[in-house]
Amino acid sequence: MRTALTIAGADPSGGAGIQADLMVFESFGVKGLSAITALTAQDGKRVHAVEPVSSEFLLKEITVLLKKFSVDAVKIGMLGTGQNGLALARLFKRTGLNNIVLDTVFASTGGRPLIDEGGVDAVKGLIKYAYIVTPNLGEASMITGIDVRDLRSMEEAALAIHSMGARAVLIKGGHLEGNPVDVLFDGKRFDYFKGRRLKGTKERFHGTGCMLSAGIAAGLAKGNGLKKAVEDARERLIAILKKRGTRKAARKIEL
Questions:
Q1: pLDDT at 215
Q2: Spatial contact of 168 and 127, defined as CB atoms under 8 Å apart
Q3: Angle, alpha carbons 161-136-11 (nearest 5°)
Q4: I need a labelling partner for 244 at 20 to 30 A (CA). Which of 1, 16, 90, 196 fits?
Q5: 110 close to 202: Cβ distance less than 8 angstroms
Q6: Domain range 3-254, CATH class
Q7: How far apart are CA 197 and CA 106, in angstroms?
Q8: What is the pLDDT of residues 87-98, one digit of tens each?
Q9: Residues β-bridged to residue 168
Q10: How far apart are the C-alpha atoms of 229 and 94, rounded to whole Å?
Q11: How is the chain split into domains, by residue range?
């Protein structure tokens, strides 16, 4: 069985972070490993507190796993601290891990910072190790300094991030006006993944970035090409969101 490692924060509500990543890995038939960067107190609607682990402990988590398991893909989510990002850069340089999916998590959906001051620069330092980087519009703006708000600026941001060393870039367009469009640049060409706007509360969309990047990592771990990995991850995410909406509707009927 192929194996994927998620390096991210823990979400006790189960909707995002490590817990959501492992659920997605399992749904793709991939063995999931995890290294926790931070503990959080959250309920699916709001992050109430964050307690990062030390970079020394994070490296210990990962090195212990690498001694026993062969890792086919890595997904990176919330880092908690810039020091954790710097430690991962040293690790990747030393170990040569590949198929790295970098989900540039800077803040929760509610706006709470999920990385400390200076952490954005540390995340930028990981870009050159990434197979694919998956920022949303706001994160792409923070990384590049470009005001990313439409398809043209998404393309500009993808090119800028690619120039930082990433093999590919997926700019997520969930915050676009109208229906969402994700823009993939593989180093040679652009592909556009159009979606349909789903309605619901923030709770329904909690962890969407985590699950999408985890799905891409699972596809890469299985040996799929980049475009197929992205397509399959998007389809799986849409199915999960539709199921969440159905469960919520069922609860309303029961009440």
A1: 98
A2: no
A3: 120
A4: 1
A5: yes
A6: alpha beta
A7: 24
A8: 999 999 999 999
A9: 132
A10: 27
A11: 3-254
